[in-house]
Design a protein that fits this description.
6 strands; alpha+beta; 6-stranded antiparallel beta barrel; globular; 104 residues
Length: 104
């Protein structure tokens, strides 16, 4: 990605993160990420029917001091999670991480 496109893309992500970002801890480091939760799973948890569901987090890679690996502990909304899937495009600025409850 050329530097101008990268800067524009990063600026767009930062604007979205400023509006929709939520705190997330990965390996004890607090960052802000854009997190997507399944609305159905969220309702099941809130209704007490289900206790766990995975979430997807989009993270600006520059926010991480080192890239986390599969199984790295994470915390979201005070609940323990671990990284179960990592998607990073070569030369990408954003990493997509699937977090599953640590009990799995």
């Amino acid at each position: 990605m050329n530097p101008r496109m990268a800067a524009d893309f990063e600026g767009g992500f930062l604007a979205l993160r400023a509006e929709f970002g939520v705190p997330l801890a990965i390996a004890g480091a607090e960052i802000t990420a854009i997190v997507a939760e399944s609305p159905f799973a969220k309702e099941l948890r809130e209704g007490g029917i289900a206790t766990e569901a995975s979430v997807d987090a989009k993270i600006l890679l520059a926010d991480l001091s080192e890239l986390p690996a599969h199984g790295t502990p994470a915390e979201y909304k005070g609940e323990p999670f671990k990284i179960s899937r990592i998607t990073i495009q070569p030369g990408g600025l954003i990493g997509e991480y699937e977090l599953v409850p640590r009990r799995r």
